[in-house]
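Renewal narrative, Specific Aim 1. Our central claim is that a sequence can be written position by position from structural information alone. The example that follows is taken directly from our test logs and has not been curated for this report. It begins with the structure tokens describing the chain, in the order in which they were read.
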């Protein structure tokens, strides 16, 4: 039987509403590897505009932690609980976290030919094959063949 190596998996941690960034900073400060996808939005009030960080996964943070250190995350204010799936802590593969990071980086894809829906392409930086779901202008969305995750990247 293959032993599951938790260092290669990320766990999904629920936070209090609008506490994702604070929890991320606090967990990082105590030495926990943590990630939450964030995008910058321009919000407008009646008197000003401001750039704000908006988490893509509301009330969720991904943590990469050893099984025996799992309780360490509850030392941080704002942490609620882990996400469970079928009675076990939900895991996210490292490749899926990389796919999210690359999605946010809007990685460029050098186009040798016209890409259309249904084509299989090599996703930049991930070096994984993906089936194109849609092409809108210079933006391409594709589903990774092995992982099933949807990624997006810019066409050049």
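The sequence written for that structure reads:
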């Amino acid at each position: 039987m293959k032993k599951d190596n938790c260092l290669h998996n990320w766990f999904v941690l629920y936070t209090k509403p609008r506490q994702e960034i604070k929890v991320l900073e606090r967990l990082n400060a105590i030495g926990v590897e943590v990630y939450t996808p964030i995008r910058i939005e321009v919000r407008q009030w009646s008197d000003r505009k401001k750039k704000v960080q908006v988490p893509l996964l509301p009330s969720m943070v991904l943590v990469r932690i050893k099984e025996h250190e799992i309780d360490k995350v509850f030392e941080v204010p704002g942490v609620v609980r882990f996400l469970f799936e079928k009675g076990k802590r939900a895991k996210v593969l490292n490749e899926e976290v990389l796919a999210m990071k690359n999605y946010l980086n809007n990685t460029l894809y050098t186009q040798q030919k016209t890409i259309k829906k249904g084509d299989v392409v090599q996703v930049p930086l991930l070096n994984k094959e993906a089936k194109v779901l849609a092409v809108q202008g210079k933006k391409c969305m594709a589903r990774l063949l092995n992982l099933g995750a949807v990624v997006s990247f810019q066409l050049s």
